[in-house]
Amino acid sequence: MSIEYFTPLTGTLGGFLIGGSAAILLLFNGDILGASGIVSTTVLDPVKAFTDPCMTWKLAFLSSFLLFSNLVLGTYLEGDERFGKNASIPVPSIIGYVLAGGLVGFGTRLGNGCTTGHGVCGMARLSIRSIAAVCTFMITGIATAVLTAPDNHVTRDFTEFLRTSDVPKQPMQWLGSIISMFIVLPTILAIFRLFAMKEESKKTAPTSQPKSINPSEDKTTQSEDDYACDPNVDLSDDRHKIIPAATGGLVFALGLAVSGMVYQGKVLGFLNLYLLSNGTYDPTLLLVMGGACIVSFVAYQFVRGWGILSHSWIRTCPLAAKKFSVPSSTMIDTQLLLGAVCFGAGWGLAGICPGPAIYLAAIGTPSVISYWWPAFLIGSFIALKVKERS
Q: What PANTHER family does this protein's entry cite (predicted)?
């Protein structure tokens, strides 16, 4: 293990910030932090995303994340010190990025969650379903990184097409600004529209059926990363959620940056166990996940039905809304495990999961914008159709 790459202090602090973002969404809005669900529901169904009042908080979260990443983090944050500079950390080829994005998109949609939905939020409330998903995608991610590692003398000739020797192109901030504006400008209009709407107009807005939030119920259709809006919730809730959601997006982006999880080299430095042999393994991700789960776990102790501690401060409703919307499924089924396997494989190929991918798009990373994200959305769309038919 090398102290050159292991960053325990910033890793733990970043984890606390990521957990803080999840806590803000939970305690103020009653919602969970699910990066893949927020993005896929916004892009795959933009009409619903920008017209349904229930979706406006997701737009505020995403816009805040994009703006802060593009204008602040992309300007002052240093580049990845290992990616493209260390022979043991592979740079994905075009095929590698496409496969990685497609697998992550398909897996997160089919398995209903990623490192945030299942990892930060699910494990924090001791969800058996999420624990199973996290164990599955962690094992698969590590296995994939090991099998495709340049140092793997057994498989490297067979996996050479997944990586390239080309130096990664530098981020183009102007490109990230354009990408961000495609979300931010419609979001501003959606927020103005939300505050201009009358209460009766929500009844005609496109909504889906509400799902139960009773912890004692077992609903296999509930998602860790995404859940339906409740048309019975009045517009005041949707309006009150805007500021906490925007704050949560900013804190989430800051947490990812501070922890180093926006760097592919940092993530692959954890997943690739071959690095143990040359002393450059980086276990920082464990501290990031641990710190995030600790803060998120504390937040759940204030939510009725989800904490393990009994005290007088338990809340039956969020601070800015009237109800908690927390997935309650305990079913460990084929879709969950297959989704986790696919997500882990894609994660291990490129070292990118949805949260950092949003950041990389916001700062204008060409390979992620051109190859990873289109494949992610296609994979997510295919998984959505598979779930509709099952």
A: INNER MEMBRANE PROTEIN YEDE (PTHR30574), SULPHUR TRANSPORT DOMAIN-CONTAINING PROTEIN (PTHR30574:SF1)
